[in-house]
């Protein structure tokens, strides 16, 4: 299937797989962001009224990106089961577009945070310590009595969490873009518009509604016949 391709028979199943992948990736990214905040950033997010903006923004966007990915995944699964529902098309378009933007912002923020941390040797990670003797390399820090956390592993732990989170944010963005393209195809707008696909879905929806109406009328007639007997 190409970038703008959507198979009417297999498209729903493929969209469901994308939704499940978004939910899984979103949960993992959310957990990573929570671990980073709980073990590291809560000690340095505002030490002595000095806000480390690059760390706070990267962590907040990572958590928000995870939550939005879960939401977009749920909407994608619902849309895959109801391809003719117009409201779900717009919902998928809105959530996937928002999640793609937030995921891209998160990825850029994590790249910035990693670059700053590596360039200064991780000394910003020790800004929550009370000691004035901050080493040049955070990986060599040994100030357990003056810091509210273990400084011997903070540099390696932070980077080991940020790199997977950056990769997962990029994956979230790619999956969200795919969901956005599917929503545009279903609505028949944009560069990937296919009016034929939209018309076929509308025809199938009309036939389904007509079939339900006939079944309802049959049920009512049978009910009246039973009451007369």
TrEMBL record:
Gene Ontology CC annotation, any one: membrane
Keywords per UniProt: Membrane, Transmembrane, Transmembrane helix
Pfam families cross-referenced by the UniProt entry: BCLP
Signal sequence bounds: none
Residue ranges crossing the lipid bilayer per the database entry: 18-40, 60-78, 90-116, 166-186
Keyword Cytoplasm belongs to the record: no
Membrane topology label: Multi-pass membrane protein
Subcellular location: Membrane
Coiled-coil region list: none
Keyword Mitochondrion: no
Family statement: Belongs to the TMEM54 family.
Name the UniProt record assigns to this protein: Keratinocyte associated protein 3
